[in-house]
User: Fold these one by one.
Assistant:
Number 1:
Amino acid sequence: MPQFSANSDLRVDIVEHVDLSVIIPVYNLQDYITETLESVIRQRHGASIEILVIDDNSDDATVELATHMAGQDNRIRLLTNVRKRGAAGCRNTGILEARGNWIIFLDGDDLLLEDSIKCRLDAVDNDPDIDLISGGFIRWHWEEDWSESSLENTPLADFLSCSAFPTILEK
C-alpha cells in the first residue's frame, strides 16, 4: 500500500457522489501547476468532479501553489507521497484515493482543452457500454506564444473537435 499524507492545511469537503476524478501527478512544476489546475477548473460540464494533485516531494513552490488553488476551489485535494514514487506511483496513489466513476490522468504540466471533460462525459452518456475513453494531445513549446486560436482551420483542430474527440474504445 503506497504511503502518502494529506496536506494538513488543505480544506477537503467530502462529496457523496463524484462522477469524475482528475489525477494530476506533480514534481517541481511550479511554473505550470496553476495553469494546469485552471484548465480543469474552467471546464464546462454538469458533472461532479474531484481534482487530486499528488506531489512527489517537490522542493520548489509546487505544493504552495496547489494549496493556494485548493483554498479557492474545494474540488482540489493535495496528497504528498511520503517517499518519491515517480509519475506512475503518483497515479497509483491517485487511483487509490479517487472517488469518481471515471478517471482522467493529466500531467502537471499539461492543459485540458475547453470542453474536454464535457466531450468525454457526453460520449459515456451516449453509450453506457464504454469502458475507456482516450483523447489526443497537442505538443507545443512553452517559450512560444501559443493560443487556442492558432488551431483554427487546421486538420489538428478537426481531429480534436468533439466530432472526432474523444476516441472511444469498446470491449
Number 2:
Amino acid sequence: MPFVLLWDNQFSKKPVKQPLTDFTEKFIIQEKSNYKKENVHMTYTVGQMAKMLGLAGSTLRYYDKEGLLPFVERSSGGIRMFREKDYEWLQIIECLKKAGMEIKDIRQFMNWCAEGASTYSQRKVMFEERKAHMEAEITRMNRALDMLKFKCWYYEQAIKDGSEDRLKALI
C-alpha cells in the first residue's frame, strides 16, 4: 500500500508514516512544512529513498546506471525523483540481489515484467533456477553451521575438562 510521510505539526522533527488514503492525499507535506491541499504524491530524493531502504545512495545511483531503474523520473534539473511505487520495485531488486541474482539477470527480469504476461514462463524458470541455487547454498551453509556448533561444544568441553584428552577418546 502506498504511504506518505506526515508531520504531527509544523514543529515536529520526526515524520510519521501513514497509509495513503483519501484523507492523507489531501494534506501532503510540501517544502518547509507548508501544507497544500491537493491530490499529490510524495517524491523522494536518492538520499531519502536510500535511507528508507537501508542502502547507500551510491547503490541506487549504480542501479540506475545499470539500467535497473527505468521507471524513476527526473526533475528538469536531472535529479532523480522516486515515488511510492518505486519503493516497491526497489524492494524487489534488493531481494533479488540478496538472493544472489546478478545485475544482468535482474535487468532481464525487469524487461520481462515490462513485456507483460507473455513472459510469465521465463520469469518462473528464472526464479526456479535461483531457488534451487539458494537451496543448495543453504544446505552448504547448514553443514558449515553444524561444524561450528560442534567446535563450540568441543571447546566448551575441553575448557571444562582442562584438556582435549577425553574428547579425543570419544572421536
Number 3:
Amino acid sequence: MGFVNAHYISYITGMGKDTLVASYALATVGITSIIGAIIFGYIADRYNSRYTLAVSYGFRTIGYVLLLVGGSFKMAVIGVMFIGMSWTSVISLTGSVSSQYFGLKKLGTIYGTMFGVMPFGASAGVWVAGKVFDMNGSYDFALWLSMIMALGATLLIGIPRFQQPLLSQSS
C-alpha cells in the first residue's frame, strides 16, 4: 500500500501524464475504497469473513498485477481501483477474523499490536520502492514485491484451516 501512497503519482507521470491527471487517477482509490468497504462488509456479514478477507487481498493482488503488466495509463487506473477496493475493507475484516480466532477478550491487544506495527512495514515499503526506483529507474521490482506480498496474504488467509474459530459464524 505504501507504493500507492507515495509513488503512484510519480509512476503515472512516468507514463507521460501530468501531475493533475495523476492525482485524479489516485483519487479513484478513495472512491473505490468506500465501495469496497461496503461491499466486502456486506459479504462478510453473510458469508465467511476470513474468505472475504482473502478475496479482498486477492483484489489487491490483481491491482498490483495490472500496475505491473498493464503497460498503459488506463490499466494503471483500473489497477489502482482494484487496490482501492481492498484499501479500507481489510481493516474491518481483519478485526472480524481476529475476534473469531482469538476471542473478544484478546482482540484489543491483538488488533492494537497489528495496527501498531503495520506503519513500520508500510514506511519500509515506501522506502524500498523509492530505493528500487533510484537504482533501476523503474518501479517494476517494487511492484513485483508488492504483488508477491499481496498474493501471500491472499493464500495464507484463504487456505482452509482445520482448527475451528473460537466463536461460531452465527454468533
Number 4:
Amino acid sequence: MKPALIQLLDYFLTDLHVSANPKFNPKEKVPLRFEDFETGVEFARAKDRKRQGKVILSLKYQPAAEANVPYRFAAEIVGELLVLDAATDELAERLFNTNGPSMLYGILREVIRDATARGPYTGVILPSTSFYKPEPKKEAEAKKEPESKPAEAQPKPAPAPTKPEGSAPNA
C-alpha cells in the first residue's frame, strides 16, 4: 500500500435534509432514476497554495411529487484536499477536479444511507457515479478520424508462363 497523490485532510457537512414520504408504498416499484439527482461542485483554492483547497459538493434528490420514493434529501459537504508534490501540475489539477468530488461523494453516500436507514423505510444507497471529464484536447483527438496509411505497394502480377525454346506449339 502507498499513499495516494491526493489526500483528504478534513471534511464536514454544511447541510443535511432528509424527508420521509408518508405516501410511499413499499409494495410498489421504487423508481430510482439518475435524472432525479442533482449535483453541484465548487472549488476554492488560495492563490499561493494551488495544491491545497476546498471542494464543496452538493447533492439533491427531489423526484416528482407523485413519484413512489421513500425519501427525498439534500446534502452539502466540504472537503479540504491536498495534492502531494510528487504529482505534476497537470495531474494535480485532474486529481483535484475528479478525485476530490469523488471522495466526498463516497462520504455522502454513507451519510445518506445512514440517515435514511434511521427512518421508517429501508436505507437508500446512492448510485455509483463518476466526476471524470475528458480533457478537451484528448477528447478531440479521440474523435479524430484515424490517419490513413499510405497504400501498401501492390505486388506485381507474375509474368505469364513462357514455353521453353524449341517446345512444340499447342495443337
